[in-house]
Amino acid sequence: MPSDPAALKLDPATWKRQKVFEFFSSMDWPFCSVTFQVDVTEVSAFAHDRGISFYYSMVYLCTRAVMQVENLMLDIRKDGVYRLSRRIPSFTDMHPGEDQFHIVTMDMADDGSSDLKASVVQFAQAAREKSRAQQEFIDLSQEGSHLIFFSCLPWLSLTALTNERNTDPDDSVPRIAWGRWTESGGRKILGLSMEVNHRLVDGVHIARFAQALEEEIRALGLSKAG
């Protein structure tokens, strides 16, 4: 699969981050990871009330949040840095009763709807169907630098995490993971990890992602109806 043919190449002469990009480009391992807490009470309630997966719901909401942060939409290629038009979630999952995971890659359908609740339900239902039907470990034809890699450790509360990867300093795919939520003051709090390429992304951009995710979750819980 091509890595977003609609991506636009940045001009290094006018890109404000060029000097920072060049500085971190001298490093063999220009990656960093941050783990922070997210209140997912509304997501849990929403998924429970509609009989859908909390995991798939979070994948959808996180993908929307990523696409609101410009630096998380940047992609390093051999001939320069590009701004992607979209990112596609690629997430680990398991068949019921098994302990071997597989990787599902599925675009978020753009149905033109402004109804966030309906879109989350639609994605969660489609993700469940695709995951249940998938027999291979991974469909390599779906791989590309336009993805977001998601994983989950629902058996453990997450305080930190690192990911496997090739030693490729051009790897620009964000990696997002979470574990089991914990209860605090009647709220469900989730430890969420984001691993990024520091040539493109700083702490402020991860904070913007966290804020965008909080806003998506708040929008999901604004109305109990629907």
Flag low-confidence runs: none
The CATH class = Alpha Beta
Note the main sheet: 7 strands, mixed
**Strand content bin:** 15-25%
CATH superfamily: Chloramphenicol acetyltransferase-like domain
Radius of gyration: 18 Å
Classify the fold: give the CATH topology. Chloramphenicol Acetyltransferase
Oligomer: single chain
* Class from helix and strand fractions: alpha+beta
Helix run count: 5
Secondary structure: number of strands? 10
Just name the CATH architecture.
2-Layer Sandwich
How far is the N terminus from the C terminus?
A: 36 Å
What does this structure look like?
- The protein has one domain: Chloramphenicol acetyltransferase-like domain (Chloramphenicol Acetyltransferase), CATH 3.30.559.
- Strand 3 and strand 4 form a beta hairpin.
- Strands 2, 5, 6, 7, 8, 9 and 10 form a 7-stranded mixed beta sheet that branches. Strands 1-4-3 form a 3-stranded antiparallel beta sheet, with no helix packed on it.
- It is an alpha+beta fold.
- The protein is built from 5 helices and 10 strands.
- The mean pLDDT is 93.
- The termini are far apart.
Write the layout of secondary structure elements.
Blueprint (H helix, E strand, L loop, with lengths): L7 E2 L8 H8 L5 E9 L1 H10 L3 H13 L7 E4 L2 E4 L4 E7 L6 E5 L10 H18 L13 E6 L22 E4 L3 E3 L2 E11 L5 H19 L5
Parallel strand pairs: 5-7, 7-8
Antiparallel strand pairs: 1-4, 2-10, 3-4, 5-6, 8-10, 9-10
Protein traits:
226 residues; alpha+beta; Chloramphenicol Acetyltransferase; 7-stranded mixed beta sheet; 3-stranded antiparallel beta sheet; 5 helices; 10 strands; globular
